[in-house]
User: Which sequence fits this backbone?
C-alpha cells in the first residue's frame, strides 16, 4: 500500500480526525489527510518528532535494547497515536488523531498495526 492509500485507510478508523506520515529525522510530513483549522497536522507532526526523538534517546540512555511500538497521548477530547514504522529503518511514524468520544482505542491501534504491515514507504 502506498502513502496516500495508507492515510485514506487511517481515516476509516472510527473517530479519525486527521493522520500524517512523518519522517522524524527531518520533521517533515510525507503526507497528511484530514485535520483543518482546529488541527494543523504539519505543526503537530513537527512537534511530535521531538516526542519520538526524546523517547528514542531515553531508551538509549537506559540501555534498553527494544523498539518503540507506539506512543499514546491522551487529551480531554482526543487521542493522539504515534506509531513508529518498524520496516523504515526507524525514521518514520504514522500519526493519528482521534475524537475520544467516537473512537475505540484498542481497535484503532490494531488497525494502525495492520496498515503498518501493508505500507511501503
Assistant:
Amino acid at each position: 500500500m502506498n502513502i496516500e492509500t495508507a492515510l485514506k485507510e487511517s481515516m476509516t478508523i472510527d473517530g479519525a480526525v486527521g493522520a500524517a506520515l512523518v519522517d522524524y529525522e527531518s520533521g517533515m510530513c510525507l503526507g497528511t489527510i484530514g485535520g483543518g483549522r482546529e488541527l494543523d497536522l504539519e505543526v503537530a507532526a513537527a512537534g511530535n518528532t521531538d516526542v519520538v526523538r526524546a523517547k528514542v534517546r531515553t531508551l538509549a540512555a537506559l540501555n534498553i535494547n527494544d523498539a518503540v511500538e507506539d506512543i499514546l497521548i491522551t487529551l480531554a477530547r482526543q487521542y493522539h497515536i504515534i506509531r513508529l514504522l518498524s520496516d523504515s529503518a526507524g525514521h518514520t511514524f504514522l500519526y493519528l488523531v482521534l475524537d475520544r468520544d467516537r473512537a475505540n482505542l484498542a481497535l484503532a491501534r490494531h488497525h494502525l498495526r495492520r496498515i503498518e504491515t501493508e505500507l511501503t514507504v
In short: The longest strand covers residues 16-23. The chain has a mean pLDDT of 92. The helical segments are 3-10, 41-61, 105-118.
